[in-house]
Write a structure and sequence with these properties.
Blueprint (H helix, E strand, L loop, with lengths): L12 H26 L5 E3 L8 E7 L4 E4 L7 E7 L4 E9 L2 E4 L8 E3 L3 E4 L8 E7 L4 E11 L2 H49 L11
Parallel strand pairs: 2-10
Antiparallel strand pairs: 1-5, 3-8, 4-5, 4-9, 5-6, 7-8, 9-10
Keywords: Membrane, Transmembrane, Transmembrane helix
C-alpha cells in the first residue's frame, strides 16, 4: 500500500523577487515625490518683485568672511543667483535640516545657507552679484543680497577716507586765504590811517608863485 505524503517546500523565489520589486517601487515613489516637492522643477526661478523681498547691501573685502542675517522658516530653502542675461535666478544650493546640497560645486567652499542667514567665506571677485533666498514649497523670497567685492581692507579704508581728506585740505586752503585777506585789509587800513596823520601833522608846502 502506498501511503501519500504531503511535502512542504519553502516559498518560491519568484515570490521573493515580487516582494522586493514592490518595495523598491514604493520607495522609489516616495523618493520621487520628495524630489518633486523639494528640488524638482527647473534649476532657475523667475525673479521676485523687489517690493516683496527685502534688499541687503553687503560689501565684503577680498579673502574675508561675512555673515548676512536672513531669518527664514524651518522648512527647506533655496539659494539662487540672479543671471542678468536670462533674467532667471539660477539655483546654487538647497538647505534642508541643517545640510546644504549644492548644484554649483564651485561655490561649495564659499557659500553656506544657515538657519539664521547666509555665510560667505573666502570672498572673491567671482562671488559678486545678486542672490535670493527662497523658502518653502512656494519659494517665498526671504531676502535679496547685493554682494559687492572690494579690494584689501586697508586700501578700502583709505578709499573711504579720500573724501574726508579732500574736505579738510579745501577747508585749510580757505582758512589760509581768509587770514591773508584779513591781513591785507588790516595793512591797507593802517596805511590809510598813517597817511591821514601825516597830512594833519605836516603842513602843505607854501605857494611861492603867488608872491611873485
Amino acid at each position: 500500500m502506498v501511503v501519500g505524503m504531503w511535502t512542504f517546500s519553502s516559498p518560491p523565489q519568484e515570490g521573493k523577487r515580487l516582494g522586493i520589486s514592490a518595495l523598491i517601487l514604493i520607495l522609489g515613489g516616495l523618493w520621487g515625490r520628495w524630489i518633486t516637492e523639494v528640488g524638482a522643477g527647473p534649476m532657475g526661478e523667475k525673479l521676485s518683485a523687489s517690493s516683496m523681498c527685502p534688499i541687503i547691501h553687503q560689501y565684503i573685502p577680498r579673502d574675508s568672511k561675512a555673515f548676512i542675517p536672513i531669518p527664514r522658516s524651518n522648512s527647506y530653502a533655496v539659494l539662487c543667483r540672479v543671471n542678468l542675461t536670462s533674467s532667471q535666478c539660477e539655483w546654487v544650493l538647497i538647505a534642508n535640516r541643517g545640510r546644504c546640497y549644492y548644484f554649483n560645486l564651485g561655490l561649495k567652499e564659499h557659500l553656506v545657507l544657515h538657519q539664521m542667514g547666509l555665510i560667505v567665506m573666502h570672498m572673491k571677485k567671482e562671488l559678486e552679484g545678486e542672490y535670493q533666498v527662497l523658502s518653502g514649497i512656494n519659494r517665498t523670497c526671504q531676502g535679496r543680497v547685493l554682494m559687492t567685492y572690494v579690494g584689501p581692507l586697508f586700501l578700502y579704508r583709505i578709499f573711504l577716507l579720500i573724501p574726508g581728506i579732500m574736505f579738510l585740505v579745501g577747508l585749510g586752503m580757505l582758512w589760509d586765504w581768509l587770514i591773508k585777506a584779513r591781513s591785507r585789509m588790516g595793512a591797507s587800513e593802517e596805511e590809510q590811517t598813517a597817511n591821514q596823520l601825516i597830512q594833519h601833522v605836516i603842513p602843505p608846502p607854501l605857494d611861492t608863485t603867488a608872491r611873485l
